[in-house]
């Protein structure tokens, strides 16, 4: 169960990084959010 929980957190972290990378360019602050 701990392994599944860790995998879930890692996947969520990777997906959030990818989506934030696609939504805004790196190094540019988000003013509209």
From TrEMBL:
<protein>
    <recommendedName>
        <fullName>Lipoprotein</fullName>
    </recommendedName>
</protein>
